[in-house]
Amino acid sequence: MRPTVHDIAAAAGVSLATVDRVLNQRPGVRHVTREKVENAIREIGYVRDVAAANLAKGRTYPFVFILPASDNSFMHGLNAEVRAAVARAPVDRTEIRTIEIPAFDPDALVAALEMLGEERPSGIALVATDAPEVREAVDKLVENGIPVVTLVSDLTGSRRHHYAGVDNIAAGRTAARLLGRFLGGAEGDVAVLAGSMLVRDHRERLEGFAAVIAREFPSLSILPVLEGRDDPEMAYMLVADALSKKGGIVGVYSLGAGNRGLIKALKARAADRSLTVVAHELTAHTRAALIDGTIDAILNQDAGHEVRSAIRVLKAKADGLAVIDGQERIRLDIFLKDNLP
Amino acid sequence: MRPTVHDIAAAAGVSLATVDRVLNQRPGVRHVTREKVENAIREIGYVRDVAAANLAKGRTYPFVFILPASDNSFMHGLNAEVRAAVARAPVDRTEIRTIEIPAFDPDALVAALEMLGEERPSGIALVATDAPEVREAVDKLVENGIPVVTLVSDLTGSRRHHYAGVDNIAAGRTAARLLGRFLGGAEGDVAVLAGSMLVRDHRERLEGFAAVIAREFPSLSILPVLEGRDDPEMAYMLVADALSKKGGIVGVYSLGAGNRGLIKALKARAADRSLTVVAHELTAHTRAALIDGTIDAILNQDAGHEVRSAIRVLKAKADGLAVIDGQERIRLDIFLKDNLP
DNA sequence: CTGTTAGCGCTTTCAC
DNA sequence: GTGAAAGCGCTAACAG
Prior knowledge:
Chain A is of the alpha/beta class. In chain A, 50% of the residues lie in helices and 17% in strands. In chain A, strand 6 (188-194), helix 9 (200-216) and strand 7 form a beta-alpha-beta unit.
């Protein structure tokens, strides 16, 4: 049988209450007593039963998710995953509330974070907009002892406890190699469609992509980035325009959202040409395009995994517990038409 | 506040004990009483607090993992993950015991399973050898109400509750497309190195691989499969031999273990040639080979995920609870040198 | 500073 | 058949 608080109490010759005070580092215990108890804990090899503790405390974890109000498939998916987590909330003693704020709007994000500083939830997960004022607001929360994790997009140099998202530089590099190898030494231009160079994940993907293309596929040259604001209409116009003007395009890398527009443009303007296309995020649209051959590979991040991971990490931080690293590493999923889930 | 057993008792006008009997479908309750309680449960929207129940019961989950005593990196990794789970056991109330049996040995496996039928653990996870007698033994366990999940390799047509592993046909198909696209329309032979055609995962990988090559890359032809018994020495000999005899080899697909030998052969015999190589399982050896360019892509299954998933599923089955499907789908990881973890 | 006691939500004797 | 009461491991008043 696992040792319990009673065993510690007996071994240390004190009462349960004192053991509890030591275990929870509460004040009001003489130094010597504390040491006695701590020794007993160590010698006996005690590990606290978190479930019992939570039961006794009636503890629940009020968490807040701050999500951008973006109208694209990926964000809808992320939202759905958060709602799924809310549905499971009673089981894991969490109480998840979500706040929607305008996308790409640091001020709104900061306002929300400051409000939460008052409210003091047990943890906060946010899709970060990479701006200094956001970083400051996050750092203040961390200083005040509130666990914070970034979701999907990280926050440069901030003190957030954890990032639940993929390595976007690696994603860009991977896209480059896939495109380069699939093109098999061909010469020509590569068009890049992004959402906005103001968000960190897009910048990082481009950075990784450009680096590998330059170093390992010198016969390819990258055209100036098209910024489609993750908007299907805009993406369509930009890509269609580029395809008609530039005859030398052999490949496309779409590193943001709004792929619906991209796909439409590809079908309209390049059905005849054999472009190689790599895009991000598996959605109904990109999936269909992968199957019909319009897209050759899709890089994806599993929103469900990201949300569950964020919750596990927030919980662990709230309890001062360790996490299983391997379980919290968000993988870059690569989908070809052969391994779709 | 979530409703508790007290609320049900009050609403139904019975005692806690009766509520409990109904909740746990224990006998000794009149039909009418049972109905009263069941109605109350439904109306109130009660969900049982599993943690509290486990605490009261002092419940632990004795699980058994049956693993093959194979001496390759993948199995070592799997073993390590099981040990890591054992280390976490106190926290999740599991008691995991592992049994090692000779690899590729249906009889030994059946013997172990029959023994466990007596012992009646709360759940069993096994790396299945695909044989009819194994299937029968598994089905008998399932009939006797013991949760069973297959790990890494599945069992054809059996009634196991769940399979914690990748879709190996899809893995083979993916390998084929990667190889085919990377070769960019080149003509030539493809060598395939397997462990044994007696295990289902290897057969399935080959099946998927051959299908896509035949359908979509007709300029490639697959040489007769080399069976290396997942043994580095043997793999070395077979591959070295094939490379020196067959001048037309342009690609290699290694779908089993024993890649240490493969890599050695490639370095010795094909350093000059530009072979395209796809292999399975990320280990120290394959990782190094991916980085130095000897291997072009690695397909992997995350052993840690598989073990954790198996445990979650066994627990859920033992409690008659549902699982989160997305969380239990084991992905096929694709690694290029750019997205190594 | 330390100990006693009640109780978290559920299960389990043991009476009635 | 049903209920009262004690207890799982831990925490939180409240005394002392």
